[in-house]
Design goal:
Layout: H1 5-17, H2 21-36, H3 45-56, H4 61-72, E1 80-87, E2 93-100, H5 103-116, E3 120-122, E4 131-139, H6 144-153, E5 158-164, E6 167-172, H7 177-186, E7 194-201, H8 210-224, E8 229-234
Antiparallel strand pairs: 1-2, 1-3, 2-8, 4-6, 4-7, 5-6
Helix pairs in contact: 2-3, 2-4
Domain TACO1/YebC-like second and third: 79-236
Pfam family, one: Transcrip_reg
InterPro entries: Integrase-like_N (IPR017856), TACO1_YebC-like_2nd/3rd_dom (IPR048300), TACO1_YebC_N (IPR049083), Transcrip_reg_TACO1-like (IPR002876), Transcrip_reg_TACO1-like_dom3 (IPR026564), Transcrip_reg_TACO1_YeeN (IPR026562), YebC-like (IPR029072)
Length: 240
């Protein structure tokens, strides 16, 4: 599917480890999810998804508890979920999902990141139609055949199941996220290499030169470094 999930995750985690940015972003996301409903993952499915994702990135329990306690208490920060779409080098497509308490800060920052890397912002819908919302869940310790059999026995509707490095990756509709996880848990697997709700491109492009590849990486790094950016999706082939 054009993605190397373990490589992408390891690169992002390594990049963010020194600054704890990834933890700060999860803190905001957990707070927002907890504020939307009950601050209990068993009754708040959105919160449960965020916590499962946070677990795969080893987000400290103290940060998770602090965000949930803030949502339970006097936390009155209001965040908006905003999506920006744009274009990078070689016609690449980029989606930027943000959580922000200051739209006047976020939009110019995202636009500036695109412009400085030779890209451009697009209008709403100019890029997203070329992506599909997808649940991506990966495990270790099971073979491809075993996972296929498990999904069939559990009557879980999946799009695809593939092997990647030491993991078996299940791609499914977003509303099947919990069903896939539950099938694994019933089989005794409670630790996940990957647990993401993401946007996957329908078609991928390659950068034609080292220069354009470096330019594209500059764009993605600049976007991911922004305080309000939670996720960046794109349609560029990833290197192993």
């Amino acid at each position: 599917m054009g993605r190397k999930w373990n490589n992408i995750k390891e690169k992002k985690a390594s990049k963010d480890a020194n600054t704890s940015r990834i933890y700060a972003k999860f803190g905001v996301e957990i707070y927002v999810a907890a504020k939307k409903g009950e601050p209990d993952p068993e009754s708040n499915r959105a919160l449960k998804v965020v916590l499962e994702r946070a677990k795969t990135y080893n987000v400290p329990k103290a940060i998770i508890d602090r965000a949930i306690d803030k949502a339970k208490g006097a936390g009155d920060e209001n965040y908006q979920e905003l999506r920006y779409e744009g274009f990078g080098p070689n016609g690449s497509m980029v989606i930027v999902d943000t959580l922000t308490n200051n739209v006047n800060r976020t939009a110019p920052a995202v636009r500036s990141a695109f412009n400085k890397a030779g890209g451009s912002m697009g209008v709403s819908g100019s890029v997203a139609y070329m992506f599909d919302a997808t649940a991506v869940i990966g495990v270790s310790g099971k073979s491809l055949d075993e996972v296929m059999e498990l999904m069939l026995e559990s009557d879980v509707d999946v799009r695809d199941i593939v092997e990647e490095d030491e993991s078996v990756i299940v791609y499914a509709e977003p509303d099947q996220f919990h069903a896939v996880q539950e099938a694994f848990k019933q089989a005794g697997i409670t630790e996940f290499d990957i647990a993401e709700l993401t946007m996957l491109a329908q078609n991928y492009v390659a950068m034609p030169s080292a220069e354009s590849e470096a330019q594209f990486e500059k764009l993605i790094d600049a976007l991911e470094d922004l305080e309000d950016v939670q996720q960046v999706y794109h349609n560029v082939e990833q290197e192993d």
